Amino acid sequence: MRLQVWDTGPGIREDERVRVFEEFYQVGNAERDRRRGMGLGLSIVRRLANLLELRLGMTSAIGRGTTFTLELPAVERPAQVQPRPVLATTTLHDRQVLVIEDEAATRDALRGFLEGLGCRVSVAGSIEEAAALALLEEPDIVLADFRLRGEATGLQAVQRLRQGRPDLPAIIITGDTAPEQLAKLDESGIDVLYKPVAPERLVQAMGALLREPASFSL
């Protein structure tokens, strides 16, 4: 099977056709506007294609657009398996969680998941908004994405909140692989989870920081 994704955009210059598969690289987005994506899509596709030994190709014409092609071997349809129910055992009920994430879709998904566990959730898209919310409703724990809008980071957000409460439990969630950024996180002493984060891993990490056993399993 040949799967193709076409666009009718400006095309990709030849000198950038290798770089577009790098993590966080985006053509024409030097200001790193997160509304235009994170620059991870193609790097993830290439990594998965390599792991599955699939052929991934790209052709592009300036002013006409770009085509990505993925060649997949044909296989027999697998037998349908009924999904197992989700079993959640947590002691996070009624805990106040502050989520700091500048991507609205991710914010909403995380809030829905946490509220499903019985948590009370506040969401912020910036350091300033997080600081204001923390004054209105003191959080029991903070979950912060590392890369926020502009040059701001979740690490800076946690450090700002800890100025008033040094013992505030916090978890940084990141997909960053840059050695200098990982070194900063390691030096901070703040708990870090790396994307993609499994739901059960997030629940366990929160429970450990709050000193309350928690589990989440399928």
Distinctive features:
five-stranded parallel β-sheet; 29% helix; 10 strands; 2 domains; Heat Shock Protein 90; 218 residues; single chain; alpha/beta; 22% strand; three-stranded antiparallel β-sheet; Rossmann fold; globular
The H/E string reads EHEEEEHEHEHEHEHE
CATH arch. level architecture of the largest domain: 3-Layer(aba) Sandwich
Q: Could you name the CATH class of the largest domain?
A: Alpha Beta
Could you estimate the helical fraction of the residues in percent? Answer: 25-40%
CATH topology of the largest domain: Rossmann fold
Distance between the termini: 32 Å
Under CATH, the homologous superfamily of the largest domain reads: Response regulator
Q: What would the average pLDDT be, to the nearest integer?
A: 84
**Major β-sheet strand ordering:** 6-5-7-8-9
Walkthrough of the structure:
- The protein has helices at 41-51, 104-116, 127-136, 154-161, 179-188, 199-209, and strands at 2-6, 55-61, 65-71, 87-89, 96-100, 120-124, 141-145, 170-174, 191-194, 215-217.
- The protein is α/β, with parallel strands linked by helices.
- The chain folds into two domains: 2-71, 2-Layer Sandwich (Heat Shock Protein 90); 87-217, Rossmann fold (3-Layer(aba) Sandwich).
- β8, α5 and β9 (191-194) form a beta-alpha-beta unit.
